[in-house]
Specification:
This protein has about 325 residues and is α/β, with parallel strands linked by helices. It is built from 9 helices and 6 strands, in the order H-H-E-H-E-E-H-E-E-E-H-H-H-H-H.
Length: about 325
């Protein structure tokens, strides 16, 4: 087992830290900070609907590592730390938020009892490249009046990659302080590691760091993290091997077909070229033969109507003297 210290950006460690019923206070504080809830808008209590289950991870190493929770107002939450952002991350978020929203009908068949569902996706990569906002919120609303349909589904996307701890007044709000805790927790592997001045009196963040250290020290949690990483690596390797094998087979098949097609084309082209060459040669030969017959006719006339000898007639018609001699004897 490796000595790697896993940060809160690791999805399994994130869930092990925040879904533990003993850590309800830090989960409440996290939600209030990320959603920027104040005064009477703040949640007071929260119930985790899917606590950390190590057996489930052993059975299904690719299971979704999210936290489903319900607060004192009946609002449902789906919170997920996404280490590797999938291609269709926005559809993924909507799907799981919708699934959580519709799952309420299993408890009640009345639509009017459906409660608001909020999805919080904490992204390690930059997905909204067209703006600089760390926090992007999507809701249902009228496209003309912009009037929202309240109490349905909200999608919150928080991009840790855009958070700069060195920016002036970077830790001035609870939202920013928790972003620091999530992104830079590995800088505080020991209790003695110096905290930024702004976090010294943040009780829940300090408790989150303690819970993070505890989870890192837990052998079962580390085993799950590493078993999952190995499983994913194996899957990727198998896919790459299959792809390479497929490419090799495709290349071989393509070369065979290309060679066959090229040979057919080459033969056809060769035949065409040969035909052209034959015609050209035949035409030349025909012309030569015609010229020869014409010369023989002239030679014949000269033999029987003149006193020229065979050598003279050969020189005049360009015919071989033997042909002249043969014509004279015939």
């Amino acid at each position: 087992m490796s000595n790697t210290f896993y940060n809160l950006t690791n999805d399994i460690l994130f869930k092990a830290t925040f879904s533990n019923p003993e850590n309800n206070k830090i989960l409440i504080c996290l939600i209030n900070a990320l959603l920027k809830l104040q005064d009477d808008k703040k949640i007071i209590t929260v119930e985790v609907l899917n606590p950390f289950n190590d057996k489930k991870f052993l059975d299904d190493k690719l299971s979704i590592v999210d936290i489903k929770a319900k607060d004192n107002k009946g609002i449902f939450y789906n919170i997920e730390m996404q280490v590797q952002v999938s291609k269709n991350w926005e559809k993924r978020a909507l799907y799981y938020a919708s699934e959580l929203y519709t799952s309420q009908l299993k408890q009640s068949n009345s639509y009017n009892k459906l409660k608001k569902t909020i999805s919080i996706s904490i992204l390690s990569e930059t997905c909204f490249k067209d703006n600089k906002d760390i926090h992007n919120i999507y809701t249902f609303h009228n496209i003309k009046s912009l009037k929202p349909l309240d109490n349905l589904i909200e999608l919150h996307f928080i991009e840790l990659s855009k958070f700069d701890k060195d920016k002036k007044r970077a830790l001035s709000s609870p939202f920013e302080k928790w972003l620091y805790a999530l992104k830079h927790g590995d800088k505080h592997q020991k209790e003695s590691d110096m905290l930024p001045y702004e976090l010294i009196n943040e009780k829940e963040i300090n408790e989150a760091f303690c819970a993070m250290r505890y989870a890192n020290a837990d052998q079962e949690t580390r085993y799950l993290i590493e078993a999952r990483q190995k499983f994913i690596r194996d899957q990727v390797t198998m896919q790459e091997d299959a792809l390479e094998e497929g490419l090799a087979e495709g290349l071989a098949e393509g070369l065979a077909k290309g060679l066959e097609k090229g040979l057919e084309k080459g033969l056809a082209k060769g035949e065409e070229k040969g035909l052209k060459k034959g015609l050209k040669k035949g035409l030349k030969k025909g012309i030569e033969e015609g010229e020869k017959q014409k010369a023989i006719k002239i030679a014949t006339q000269l033999i029987f109507s003149s006193h020229l000898n065979d050598l003279e007639i050969s020189q005049m018609t360009d015919l071989d003297i033997k042909i002249i001699q043969k014509i004279r004897k015939s």
